[in-house]
Specification:
By secondary structure, the protein is an all-alpha fold. The chain has 5 helices and no strands.
Length: 103
Protein backbone atom coordinates (compact mmCIF):
# COMPACT_ATOMS: atom_id res chain seq x y z
CA UNK A 1 0.00 0.00 0.00
CA UNK A 2 2.81 2.39 0.82
CA UNK A 3 4.29 1.68 -2.59
CA UNK A 4 1.04 2.62 -4.33
CA UNK A 5 0.82 5.84 -2.36
CA UNK A 6 4.40 6.66 -3.22
CA UNK A 7 3.93 5.93 -6.92
CA UNK A 8 0.64 7.70 -7.38
CA UNK A 9 1.11 10.45 -4.90
CA UNK A 10 -2.63 10.43 -4.31
CA UNK A 11 -3.63 8.77 -1.06
CA UNK A 12 -7.37 8.75 -1.82
CA UNK A 13 -6.90 7.00 -5.19
CA UNK A 14 -4.60 4.42 -3.62
CA UNK A 15 -7.07 3.67 -0.82
CA UNK A 16 -9.91 3.37 -3.35
CA UNK A 17 -7.83 0.93 -5.39
CA UNK A 18 -7.05 -1.08 -2.26
CA UNK A 19 -10.75 -1.17 -1.30
CA UNK A 20 -11.87 -2.31 -4.76
CA UNK A 21 -9.17 -5.00 -4.84
CA UNK A 22 -10.21 -6.31 -1.44
CA UNK A 23 -13.89 -6.42 -2.41
CA UNK A 24 -13.09 -8.19 -5.68
CA UNK A 25 -10.97 -10.80 -3.93
CA UNK A 26 -13.68 -11.33 -1.29
CA UNK A 27 -16.38 -11.89 -3.90
CA UNK A 28 -14.14 -14.24 -5.88
CA UNK A 29 -13.36 -16.22 -2.74
CA UNK A 30 -17.03 -16.58 -1.87
CA UNK A 31 -17.86 -17.76 -5.40
CA UNK A 32 -15.10 -20.35 -5.31
CA UNK A 33 -16.22 -21.49 -1.86
CA UNK A 34 -19.79 -21.94 -3.13
CA UNK A 35 -18.69 -23.96 -6.14
CA UNK A 36 -16.55 -26.23 -3.97
CA UNK A 37 -19.43 -26.78 -1.52
CA UNK A 38 -21.80 -27.60 -4.35
CA UNK A 39 -19.33 -30.04 -5.89
CA UNK A 40 -18.83 -31.78 -2.56
CA UNK A 41 -22.59 -32.02 -1.96
CA UNK A 42 -23.31 -33.51 -5.40
CA UNK A 43 -23.67 -37.29 -5.44
CA UNK A 44 -20.76 -39.08 -7.02
CA UNK A 45 -21.73 -40.80 -10.24
CA UNK A 46 -20.81 -44.43 -10.48
CA UNK A 47 -21.22 -47.29 -12.91
CA UNK A 48 -24.65 -48.17 -11.44
CA UNK A 49 -26.11 -44.77 -12.32
CA UNK A 50 -26.34 -45.57 -16.02
CA UNK A 51 -28.35 -48.71 -15.23
CA UNK A 52 -30.88 -46.73 -13.23
CA UNK A 53 -31.60 -44.56 -16.25
CA UNK A 54 -32.03 -47.69 -18.40
CA UNK A 55 -34.42 -49.21 -15.86
CA UNK A 56 -36.76 -46.24 -16.25
CA UNK A 57 -37.01 -46.70 -20.03
CA UNK A 58 -37.19 -50.49 -19.84
CA UNK A 59 -40.38 -52.22 -20.97
CA UNK A 60 -42.14 -54.57 -18.54
CA UNK A 61 -41.10 -57.62 -20.55
CA UNK A 62 -37.45 -56.51 -20.55
CA UNK A 63 -37.65 -56.01 -16.78
CA UNK A 64 -39.11 -59.50 -16.39
CA UNK A 65 -36.36 -61.02 -18.56
CA UNK A 66 -33.65 -59.19 -16.61
CA UNK A 67 -35.05 -60.38 -13.28
CA UNK A 68 -35.27 -63.95 -14.60
CA UNK A 69 -31.67 -63.79 -15.86
CA UNK A 70 -30.49 -62.58 -12.45
CA UNK A 71 -32.31 -65.46 -10.77
CA UNK A 72 -34.74 -63.26 -8.87
CA UNK A 73 -37.72 -65.27 -10.15
CA UNK A 74 -38.05 -68.96 -11.07
CA UNK A 75 -39.22 -70.58 -14.32
CA UNK A 76 -42.87 -70.89 -13.34
CA UNK A 77 -43.16 -67.29 -12.15
CA UNK A 78 -41.41 -66.06 -15.28
CA UNK A 79 -43.75 -67.95 -17.61
CA UNK A 80 -46.87 -66.94 -15.67
CA UNK A 81 -45.93 -63.26 -15.61
CA UNK A 82 -44.84 -63.32 -19.24
CA UNK A 83 -48.22 -64.75 -20.27
CA UNK A 84 -49.97 -62.03 -18.25
CA UNK A 85 -47.90 -59.30 -19.87
CA UNK A 86 -48.49 -60.65 -23.37
CA UNK A 87 -52.24 -60.83 -22.72
CA UNK A 88 -52.36 -57.24 -21.52
CA UNK A 89 -50.29 -55.98 -24.45
CA UNK A 90 -52.32 -57.69 -27.19
CA UNK A 91 -55.38 -55.39 -26.92
CA UNK A 92 -53.12 -52.35 -27.08
CA UNK A 93 -51.40 -53.70 -30.20
CA UNK A 94 -54.75 -54.42 -31.86
CA UNK A 95 -55.91 -50.91 -31.04
CA UNK A 96 -52.76 -49.40 -32.57
CA UNK A 97 -53.19 -51.47 -35.71
CA UNK A 98 -56.81 -50.41 -36.12
CA UNK A 99 -55.81 -46.78 -35.72
CA UNK A 100 -53.21 -47.20 -38.46
CA UNK A 101 -55.83 -48.68 -40.78
CA UNK A 102 -58.12 -45.70 -40.21
CA UNK A 103 -55.38 -43.26 -41.12
Amino acid sequence: MLGLIGLGGNVAASLLFLLLSTVTLGISGQLIRGVVRQANAAPASGPGDDRQVDDASETPIETLRRRYAKGEIDDEAFERRLDQLIETEEPEQGKAESERILE
